[in-house]
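Q: Convert this sequence to structure tokens.
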Amino acid sequence: MLTKNKITAVSNGSGVCADIVGFDFNDYDAQDVAEVRKIWLQYGVVRFRDIDITDEQHIKFSHHFGEAVIHPKQLQEGAHPTQKEILVIANTTKDGKPSGALGNSEATWHTDTWFYERPPAGALLRSIALPPTGGDTYWVSMYQAYETLPSYLLDAVKGRQIFFQSVYDAAGGLRLNKQVPKSDDIREWPGIVHPLVRVHGDSGRQALYLGAKGVREQDSWIVGLPMDESNDLVAQLWEHTLKGEIFVQQWRLGDMVMWDNRCTMHRRDSFSPEHIRIMHRTTTAGERPV
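A:
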């Protein structure tokens, strides 16, 4: 069946991200959404350029890709004043307090809320105000990471599970409503166990699942391995993953990027606190990793 609009994907030489061309946010139908979804599932990251949409349009479009979920930062400084489904990522302040999440610091490699039982399936991030330099976002494919593993690492990850602690965030801060652990052994901390290799709920493809590369020396444990062996294997998997193709998003006003949280990881550069960066984001529900 033909789509209402002539929608195409332009990869620009990237195997991780494609630009969606021809999608009209003011006039689209179910077939147009299905075409975008097909491209999104193929690449893992898609980008819309030179769009001018409202928060309401952003939210409406996001609903086509799953039920809305609230990011933990929306319960803190990242809450939008009127739109409960939007996470505000910004370094702005109001009455001396942050009025957006993350500030101007670097965000290290991660997949969103990896410490949840059901991490989100996707996210849509739209630029509102940008600094002249810095704040670039990077994505890497965890499909590619798994599919290019050397045989000895394939054997090492087969059937394994990974434990992620849920006490500290990737920046090293104590999470909301969490207490400082009494033990130094993260295996005794609150957390979640997920498969080290997960099967994508829509594509059926396998992807490496590493959670996050935080500032702390240790945030995960491969279940059943001695801690030193686990640390060594996790380090090897990270080293391999970050040798893969990385897509770099140098933001422009009018950009919106949608990524599949189940098969990609991302990070963000820091930027000067002298400049303002404001982004609006929605998040969609996902399945429990298997």
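The CA atoms of residues 30 and 141 lie 27 Å apart.
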